[in-house]
Amino acid sequence: MHRAPETFLSRRTLVLSASIAALAPASPLFAHAARPMLTITEPSGRVRELEDEDIAALPWHQIATRTRWTEGVQTFRGPFLRDVLTGGGMSRSDLAGRKLLVKALNDYGIVLPAGDAWDYAPILAREMNGKPMRVRDKGPLWLVYPRDQRPELQRAVMDERWVWQLFEITIL
């Protein structure tokens, strides 16, 4: 009879612990770190995780262009894709002839030549028309090409490379 209270307390403690664990994600005390804004996996297997601050620290450039998904000319700002790719120490020659698997939050993915980063100077747009892009605005990162400035970019096959809600690049 002496053991019954211990068993009762153990069950009670177990139920209480499970209840706290179930509520923990809602508590700031137990909040998990957010997913990085961009994850880059290099051919060596090295993984670089870039936060918003890392993207903001790179030199930003502007592209004013039309898109197939918006009306009129839009102004985009963000770092060149090439600066993001080489920011971890890889060089243009390391990336020569390689491909990039670029993935979006909605599971869309496309393989494109790494050479696009230099041939067309696309940016990883973080802002559109002066405002930071949110997920519902095709953000937080949108791979944007200077479509209006380059006639060869005005083809449907090139439009497929405009990945919005971009969160992952794997260098193949």
UniProtKB/TrEMBL annotation:
Key word Signal present: yes
Presence of keyword ATP-binding: no
Signal peptide location: 1-33
PROSITE patterns: TAT
Keywords: Plasmid, Signal
UniProt protein name: Molybdopterin-dependent oxidoreductase
Source species: Paracoccus pantotrophus
